[in-house]
Amino acid sequence: MKKIFPYIGPAGATLFLLGLSLSRVLITAGLVLMLLHPLLNDDFATFRRQLFRNKAALLLLLLFCIILFNGIFTDNQSGFVDSVIIRLPLLFMPFALASPTYYKRKNLLFFVLVFIAGIGTAGVFTLSYFLLHYEEVMRDIQAHQPVIIIGGLNHIYYSVMLAFALLASFVLLWQKWIAQVWLRRALYLFIVLGLIFLHSLSARTGMLAFYGSLLLIVLYIAFMKKRYLTGIASVAALGGMLLLAFWFVKPFQARVQQSMQDISVFVKGEDINQYSISMRLAAWEVSGRLFLEHPVFGTGIADLRTEMEDGFDTYYPALAPNSRHLPHNQFLIFLAGAGLTGFLVFVGVYFFPLFLRHTSHNFLFLTLWLVLFFALMAEAMLERQVGVSFFAFFWILLSGSPLKNEAVKI
Fold first, then answer.
1. Is pTM, for the whole model, over 0.90?
2. Chain-wide mean pLDDT for the chain?
3. For residues 318 and 275, is the Cβ–Cβ distance under 8 A?
4. What share of the chain is helix, strand, coil (3-state, %, to 5)?
5. Which phi and psi angles does 178 have, rounded to 5°?
């Protein structure tokens, strides 16, 4: 029986990563197995050493404590409990990944490849459905309805994970970390398919995360290597890529036209119901006003939804109930819900790894950081458990393992 113990954690991580895009049940089962792994395989000294080695992981526990502290004085106990449950991965994941097993170079790269495989599988099934029901899906897109992702993952969260999977594939190939030829070819195939998924199935948040991150990565590399002409040419190529997508990919074209119309409606002060960007801008405005009313400790994250409703009644009374949402910006949620206190903690937790040598030079972690930064600016990624799970797992895994520039046979 003990012979299977060393495989419990890696098996759990595999189930967890596939579950992110394919099944919520697999996420729970995988996390349980990962929590069991250190208990069954490592002594306490090893567990403690690994836990305290990764300071970025420990700070996630601080972020979880802020959520707990923020709910002490709330009258909305059910909302507080829901808020805590959603963020349980911030509490459990540092302990689940406190084993040296996960940070072996071969295992780490295997986990990234499993994640890419799960995202690719969900994309293939969704694209197949899209092509078989093309006219129906295009009508939904033109009516501001999202593409339904096979596997049940929210389309915005899928698009963000897709952006990371694509950029991670670029990094794996560019750094030559994968030794097997067939795996490298599979990554090239995924990149081709992933770009199709991005421009046909993806939400605008995912496109923003992908192109924003790619642009900054290209500029960073060009600056560090002093290849300024190459950087300018790469930026021009990215612009050309977007133009080609606009001309030839109808779903992408429809989203761009909808976005322009959407912003125009808000600027003109017209009815913003059913216009997603306009509703987001309205939510940003209301959350900003709530922060000004409660600048130190905020409204309380558990009470934020109720306070937002009151704000909409005051500033946007014509907005229908189903058009009233929390701000699609995680930074604003902490600012309005937890005040300047919680906001500064969140910003500190997020920017801290950039000051660590092994993370600031780890392109996989930097890629994750950039994708999440753009996603957090345009979406409340930590308000659903699948978003918290994705964030916590890769944040801890990639910040806890310096990667050397050498190929590994998976």
1. yes
2. 88
3. no
4. 80, 0, 20
5. -105, 125
